[in-house]
Amino acid sequence: DIQMTQSPSTLSASVGDRVTITCRASQSISSWLAWYQQKPGKAPKLLIYKASSLESGVPSRFSGSGSGTEFTLTISSLQPDDFATYYCQQYNSYPWGFGQGTKVEIK
Amino acid sequence: QVQLVQSGAEVKKPGASVKVSCKASGYTFTSYYMHWVRQAPGQGLEWMGIINPSGGSTSYAQKFQGRVTMTRDTSTSTVYMELSSLRSEDTAVYYCARVGIVLEGMDVWGKGTTVTVSS
Q1: 3-class state of residue B30 by DSSP
Q2: pLDDT (0 to 100) of residue A78
Q3: Interface test with B, best of A96, A98, A102, A103 (most B CBs within 10 A)
Q4: CA A69 to CA A31: how far, in whole Å?
Q5: What is the pLDDT of residues B40-82, one digit of tens each?
Q6: Which end of chain A, N or C, is less surrounded by CB atoms within 10 Å?
């Protein structure tokens, strides 16, 4: 199985900060990676697919990059609505796996 | 509008089975795969498996092999996830989520069904 490792696990940041979350795959997954945002008590929300494609309706301050085994999610200017937990997910092969999550907290 | 409506919360005893439903509307049911993902309290997301509503084929995570069954009813645009031999560690929120054939991520999710396993 492909293991997905996110870092950091927790991130403290202020409104307006540039935030970067990293996701590493245990083997190459090409660009078959998605990023999700989840708020407490809610279902996850798709932000990015195919490593760098922005889902319709998602603000342009979110961006994704990478291929192979290393990927990043960047929030260019953190907004109050962005404090949440973020997950990466590989869909190169079954079983589709998620990273352990990165919680973005208010500094 | 596109939505996935899941069945209500369940409380089960250890050893029992639970069957969760996910009714799709607003799109062509057979044009999207359906995945099941669960989340234990305070934990991350865990992929359980996939069903192709068109032909009914499935693929399950090894962890759930032998305990999980995913089925569909095309007449009602509903998929089902049944988990048997429940134990306390199966207490979680269970989500269904669709994925298009062109693999653009899980773009629509149900609100989740809470399953509590307790004696």
Answers
A1: helix
A2: 97
A3: A96
A4: 9
A5: 999 999 999 999 999 999 999 999 999 999 999 999 999 999 9
A6: C
